[in-house]
Protein 1
Amino acid sequence: MNPDSKNFYEVARGLTSWLFTTDHKRIGILYLICVMTFFVIAALLGITIRLELFSSNSEAGGSLLGGGEIYNRILTLHGVIMIFLFIIPAIPGVFGNFFLPIMIGAEDVSFPRINLLSWYCYIIGAALALFAILSGAIDTGWTFYVPYSAKTGANLILPLSAAYMLGWSSILTGINFIVTVHRLRAKEMKMFRMPLFVWASYATGWIQVIATPVVGITLILLLLERFLGIGIFDPTKGGDPILYQHMFWIYSHPAVYVMVLPAMGVVSEIIPTFSRKTIFGYSFIAWSTMAIAAIGSLVWAHHMFTSGMADESRILFSFLTFFVAVPSAVKIFNWLATMYKGSIHLEPPMIFGLIFVLLFSIGGFTGLMNGTLSIDIHIHDTAFVVGHFHYTMFGGVGVMFFGALLYWFPKMFGRNYNKKIIYLCGFLFFVGFNMLYGTMKWLGIQGMPRRYADYVPEYEFWNRVATVGSWVMVGGLFLMIFHLLYSVFKGSKAEDNPWEGTTLEWQTTSPPPLVNFNEPPQIPEKPYDYPEEVKS
Amino acid sequence: MSEDKSEHIMPVIGYVGIWLCLIFLTGVTVAVSFVDMQNLTLFTALFVATIKSTLVLLYFMHLRHDQPIIFYMILACLGSYAVFVILTYSDYLYR
Amino acid sequence: MIEAASDIAREVDYAIIVVGGICAVFFLGIVAFMLLCIFKFHHTKTTKTKQIHGNLFLEITWTVIPTILVFYMFWVGWQGFNKIRTVPDDHMVIEVVAQQWLWNLKYPEEDIQVVNNFHIPAGVPVKFKLTSLLDDVLHSFYIPAFRVKEDCVPGMNTYIWVNADMPKNGESETYNMFCAEFCGKDHAQMIGTVTVDSPAAYEKWVQSVKAEANKPVDMKLALDATSPEVQGRDGETLYKTYCVSCHGSTGMGQAETMVPNARDFTNLVGWKQGNKINNIYETLITGVPGTEMRGFTSLSPWDRFAVAHKVASFYKGSGRQKVSEAEAKALEEKYKLSAPYEPKKTLAIDQAMDLLLKEKK
């Protein structure tokens, strides 16, 4: 390696060099700054929700926010920010942008300018969302269900246009990944030699391109409904509110896989690396990724089992839903088998990878309970569902976002963090997380409905446990974020390959140079090639 | 890359023909909307719309002269939209 | 687990245990295997790895077994679902109309109507026909003890049914009923109770509701807004049910709701038929001819007085004239208020809905 070559931070300085960059790595860093900011904001909103639910309003001083109005706004903001501004762009926007081209030996993505445009779409969407907050927030929940969203006094045009712009950002990223994978792979990088994170980003790209336009159409129809009263969804004009739910979930369910597939891709990187062992069943993991993307697009109406939809459709969608479980299970078994007869290093990213496997399994298993028709009639729209999707979305995607950050931190910033602090954070997070969302599942089985600003006194004890859990969890998370922020500037210099990884990003310097590689990288026959005899 | 293929140019009269086709099909959609066909209304409308978009894709967007993989990709998109509509329709058929 | 108060509730609990049990076994297996790997193959213990690229037999096994299991789960859910959706023929009907943020429950057979808190007989299948007011939002009728819920959709009829167990004390037992679909500000307050009664207790309750609804009117108490009889009727709720869509929650009428010519209740100027309580009472029967205001004949006299007082309460000044003895007497005689009230048969709610929908078209 040439020690004198400049890394991509050093080639240009100043604000404009960032705002007008077309370097995929810098765009990744821009995304990182934004999604982290929004994550912290939304997490604080989440803490506020839990504080309100600490006591039942039947007690004196039981209501922190003084009733449903403010609570509903906070709840909506928490959902909208977490979903549209954090989880959807988090892993593709940050790590997909940064590492996908490097991992296939490319210099950049196929359309660097469109890549920058997608970041600007994100920023415009975020600005509209923030403006919506300042101008008297929305109170419809992140699902914007009609007829409520067509009637509420809140100003809906801003948040809807925000979601619309964010949809564009997502589509542009997706197109870029698909084309990059097809066009810019290094010569020996065959499709079935690609790292699994690339496979996951590729499948994600397809969902983004196919499903996101549907939500764009839906949001436009909703705006037309609200301002012109065209009567597609409005029952007083002969419209059908359930049609909105169909159209909304046609996008928003596959969006769940837009979030989770990249996270699964990161796990498929981390587990072989820290087991010093090749991945078990490479092609099965790759194909199960595509299978999840395909089947996951056909199961949206399981969000509507009590909506008044035809009974026959409920049975059909329940049947389809169960099939998504199979490729997910195949992945989990393959990851476990990868650890077998390896040489396991419990470094911080591996700890987060294992936390992912545990929490995501719980999320998946409770998903099976939701998919079972008779059970869902009971637990639908209760705290159980809230617990379930936090296990998959936060315990799955959120955890893996931080796992990916810990894994690639030395590469992205050329610095190390203090592992002991991260272990402590991981422990606090895990304990608090289960106290919070595990309890929610129990409350849901007890019948506590979701989106309640208040509850009957029977539910008070477990709600208090959950609120205390939220403090522990967020304490751990914020400590980690602050420590990582500190390490970006003050951490010790990192090596080029601290984890003994075998994928291409570890062959270049930390941080990488502008063109990603100073010398053409060696492309291995298999993406995770470890010797039988490894260093202790 | 397909620079050699993009040389292919269709005579203007061809484009006009396609355009007239599209106008005609729009007329069909409007005409059909006056006939009450119950459950078939949706399918006729979508069927005509599909033919129209296929024409646009094949001729105006040059898909006919492009690499087959792009054709298959777009076919996959169209296929998934068809599945979305059919699955959604299962609700309306039985409700 | 919370109390299960019907066969279906126990069936759902059984499904939770079966599906949850299978999941728990798998989850424990995952945890055990993970711990085994961590301890046995920790890098301090082993430097020799075995590079296994895969195993077709294993892959097929762990694809096929989960497939069979999820089929089984689907089947369990389907069976339960069929029971939840199949109403026995010999059922009684309760019509539920949800609105922001309360439940109207109407018993067509008993010809009574209650709000939020209601009773059902044990051992009789009860079918709840659900809908929301046409210009309202989505709600969801949820009784955890029976493990059933279904959305109330404006302009659409949905249903659930229950067959409640006999209460343990032989008389009656009360459970919570919630709104489970997000519906705005007071979503969390849209709560009611369902009381399961033995047949005898149920009959007693029906009679008491009827008696209360049809009690003869004492004019002195009826004209006094602070009397317990008037206070005991939920004028607020009735106002929300019948008046709020045109006259608004602050009583400002057109200025608030944009409904043309809707009366503003906050002043005393220009009331076509007079602004005293007896005038308002009569207007609630006759409507105002030539305007959108119509009569609400299905209200019982006491309820109508409660609404009249609610309407009057929007004017905060002291200029409203008292009703004279003679006027009170005249009203009492004109509508025979001193005799027990005989409710007229009114249109069932879903019939009314159908009519409304047809009119709209």
Protein 2
Amino acid sequence: MSLKINLRRWGGKNSPYVAAWIIMGIVLFILLVLKLRLEILILIGPFIPYLVITLARIRQELKR
Amino acid sequence: MILAHITVPLILYGFFPQLHLLALLVGANISSLDSLPTLIRKRTPKEPITEAHAATILHTLFFFIVLFIPLYIFNLTIALSFMIGGFTHVLIDALDEKGRMLLYPLSNKFYGPKILTYDFWTYVTDKKIFALESALFVAACIVLLMR
């Protein structure tokens, strides 16, 4: 049993939340980069493949 | 929780500046590496609680206690910061309705107060959770700007 999420419809309906989460994430990331400088790569390095997979999945889903 | 895995360690760092920030943040996020099966799944399960994410050894306190020993030989501050960071991740995650294997390897049961939703889609649109995460975000930004 599985539940299919229509990402386009869900994103449109919840756009204020999506925008707020993205803004908070970006602000936090910028502040962390300013604090940690190059050491940030140790923190985000292992998650870069995860980010690529996620973005590819989102793109694929929005193309439908 | 989503941003809390970054914001809570940052707030802790604000209270205890002697901790090693990078080790604290790495410890607080390394558990998320077990989310790969969740990311590559084709569909969101109707019962997300049954999925593999957060049911691995990476989401146990035991994992961080074991890693503390080799890190302690290397550097006590880094070892302690890494363990505290890891504990915050597991304990924050234990707040959701799935709970976490807090007593692993003594027990494989999932423990926790079960007060937050586990499903991602519900989580990001829940007003109370959003308010909590936003408050933690503001506190973390203050810590980062003041230090």
